[in-house]
Specification:
Length: about 290
């Protein structure tokens, strides 16, 4: 595949660009028809039984070329790029104007400015009548286990003076530990996540870039994602109607709604990235003829 490296805007400095923080990488089964709305026609979607592998990458960066910011990358699916495969981002939401412009111009991402509202919500502990009776007669000597909490993240896309709800992501956080006990964050790993991008109004080129990730990773309970009420109603009604007609009439003109559909698809795996260090190389321009040949 023929490639040509491109430059970067002055604000982010010279690549590679380094990001540190933490993230949740969640994989979903996404309908192939939904994913194809985002992916250029010359690419072959990696799919089986009408589904591809998409999901989202939710990160909180404590240091980056744009400073501290949050990011939600909606992954439409996987495209075939022999001898491996690459992800394609359907939408990228960030609460940093600088990060948004860099994503659009330098990396060819469909970036949008968004608001991330976070709050912790405790999970009510279920009452246990047996334990309550033992404590009344003085025989309950075991301390109760602290309940887990939910981290609720509301993401709203900013369009001028308007804020349009995108989704709510509800993440189960570990129970609070005793000071002497440290939570195991998983093994230290290194991996590469190649991706395609581009074909946007801000960067019409077809691009390829790679994220080199070093972090501690562990499997966690998948986050629960909910979308705006109107889209959830459409999703429920689509199960009783012709799915293709709804997509063609309502969703195709608005890729924002399709991105929400990706977020609402079925989760199959969630990985927590702690002590994250991500190095992003400058994208390269991919020649049209070479990508069509595969």
């Amino acid at each position: 595949m023929e490639t040509k490296q491109i430059g970067s805007s002055a604000g982010y400095g010279n690549p590679p660009w380094i990001f540190t923080g933490s993230a949740l990488y969640q994989l979903h089964l996404v309908k192939s028809k939904t994913a194809r709305a985002f992916i250029p026609k010359e690419f072959r979607l990696v799919e089986a039984f009408g589904y591809t592998l998409g999901g989202f990458f939710l990160a909180s960066y404590d240091d980056s070329p744009a400073g501290t910011f949050d990011e939600l990358v909606v992954l439409a699916g996987i495209v075939w790029n022999p001898p491996t495969s690459c992800a394609w981002a359907a939408r990228v939401l960030v609460n940093s104007d600088e990060a948004c412009m860099h994503g659009r111009k330098d990396v060819g991402l469909p970036s949008q400015v968004a608001r991330f509202s976070k709050r912790m919500e405790p999970i009510p502990k279920a009452s246990n009548k047996g334990n309550h009776f033992l404590s009344m007669i003085g025989l309950s000597s075991f301390p109760s286990t602290p309940p887990n909490d939910f981290l609720d993240i509301k993401v709203a896309e900013i369009k001028g003076p308007r804020a349009m709800d995108m989704c709510n992501i509800n993440i189960l956080t570990p129970a609070r530990k005793l000071p002497s006990k440290k939570e195991w964050m998983g093994p230290l790993i290194k991996m590469s996540l190649p991706s395609f991008s581009g074909r946007t109004k801000h960067n019409p080129n077809l691009l390829k870039y790679s994220c080199q990730i070093e972090c501690r990773v562990r499997k966690v309970v998948p986050a629960k994602v909910s979308g705006p009420f109107t889209l959830k109603a459409e999703k429920e009604s689509s199960e009783c109607q012709n799915q293709s007609s709804i997509i063609e009439q309502e969703v195709t003109p608005n890729k924002r709604n399709l991105s929400i559909s990706v977020l609402l698809s079925k989760p199959i795996l969630a990985l927590q990235f702690s002590c994250l260090k991500m190095k992003v190389e400058a994208p390269t321009v991919v020649s049209m003829c070479s990508s069509r040949s595969h």
